[in-house]
Amino acid sequence: MTTKKKDPVLVVVQLSGGLDFMNTLIPYTDGRIYDWRPTVSVAAESTISLDDRLAWHPSAQALSELYNAGNVAAIQGVGYENASRSHFRAMDIMHTCEPEKVATEGWLGKVTRELDPNSENPLTAVSIGRGLPRALVAPGVTATSVGNLDKFGLMTKIEQVEERTANLDIFKRMYSPAVGNGLVNDYLAQTGRDILRGADMLADVPSRYSSDVEYANNPIAQALRDVARIHTAGMGTRVFYTNHVGYDYHSLENEVHPRMLTELTEAISDFMTDIRNHDASEEVTILVFTEFGRRIMDNGSGTDHGTGGGAYIIGDHVSGGLYAEYPSLDPKDWLYGEDLTHTIDYRSIYTSILEQWMGMDAQPIVGGTYEQIRPYNTTMLV
Question: Which residues does residue 16 pair with via DSSP β-bridges, in sequence order?
Fold first, then answer.
């Protein structure tokens, strides 16, 4: 008896608002950070040491445990040339791989087209949350969006139609200003019916799932629980998208940042435990990204928009460790006189995942050729 080889799956976790990389992977032995960040810096003795130079924020305990187990590739200094500090524009650049102009195709929309060129399965790509991320949008490509599986399954048919109509309306309002009403209307006309069909196919997924893992009652934990339920139901989904909102801490960072990190890292840990228990983890890689980092100096209550952020690739197949270089803390190297300078292009990360994990030619998807990191010790491709 032969077992069918599993197809590689990508789960994307978007951190909206701009995660403070310096306050997540902390250069805790450099005394200058305590001068530059008198308000938001974490006492060295409270951090979780990674090595003699870097430490995890104490609220990233769950991520540090996955890292110590060899399942996290922490990528330092992620960014791009002429970085934008605008939330909308920076995220748009990350979604479309086009920093010079407003593009009409998302990078994961292109991936979905490659995986399912005839749009045979409307669940090839699934976004958990209201609306549809620009990353998954491309003309002629279907990506299904569902806000919450439990609520959706309990809705009447009329309520389900209203929910899906609201989702499409959110998409239309989000993207019409960027690419125009015409392109958005064309996209919805081409794919709207398939999006509704995909949502219908998800209605009975919750009844087919059982787990001993108790996810927290917060949006990212519940979203990853929905990812686990759809993935283990065998719906043929190859790309999942989730969003954790709330990282734009210009103020009250000491209160907000620990809560966000706890929610995020515990949700990822629970998700990994869940899919491992279901023998469904070996085919999954997780990409965690954010639109930009924060500025080096705090503002007295939080941190403002900056550059030089970070990303994380997580999974059983990952060769854990640090990748790229931590941005220089020498003031002469600061970008704009106040930001960390990026040390790796975000498209290098996408390229590495696409080529090494998904088995795709990345060049037409990311719009160029970028140096790859090597974050995997094994893949589903060999």
Answer: 245
Check whether residue 31 and residue 130 sit in a common domain: no
Check whether residue 94 and residue 136 sit in a common domain: yes
Mean pLDDT, range 141-169, rounded to an integer: 66
| DSSP-derived 3-state class of residue 83 | coil
Instruction: Tell which residue, 287, 248, 220, 329, has the closest CA to residue 20.
Output: 248
Q: Which domain, by its residues, includes 326?
A: 24-45+73-83+250-262+287-304+311-343
Write down how long the chain is: 382
11: which 2 tokens? 């789960």
Residue 323, classed as helix, strand or coil, is: strand
Query: Does 108 share its domain with 215?
Result: yes
Give the pLDDT band (50/70/90) at residue 198. confident
Reported pTM: 0.91
Same domain membership, residue 126 and residue 30: no
Give dist(CA 26, CA 45) in Å, integer: 12
d(CA 105, CA 97): 9
- CB-side neighbour CA atoms (13 Å) of 267: 25
List the single range of 6-20, 181-195, 248-262, 359-373 with lowest mean pLDDT.
181-195
User: Contact 60/261 with Cβ under 8 angstroms?
Assistant: yes
For the stretch 83-86, contacts whose Cβ atoms lie closer than 8 Å and that sit 24 or more positions apart, written own/partner, are 83/292, 83/307, 83/335, 83/339, 83/342, 84/292, 85/292, 85/305, 85/306, 85/307, 86/305
User: How many degrees, rounded to 5, is the angle at CA 83 between CA 77 and CA 87?
Assistant: 100
Q: Is the dihedral of CA 59, 61, 62, 63 positive or negative?
A: positive
Residue 56 host element (H or E): strand 55-56
Q: Is residue 138 within 8 Å of 161, Cβ to Cβ?
A: no
DSSP 343: S
**Of 329, 333, 339, which Cα lies nearest the Cα of 306?**
339
Question: Alpha helices of 210-297 — where are they, by DSSP H?
Answer: 219-232, 253-277
* Sign (positive or negative) of CA dihedral 180, 181, 183, 187: positive
Co-location of 114 and 30 in the same domain: no
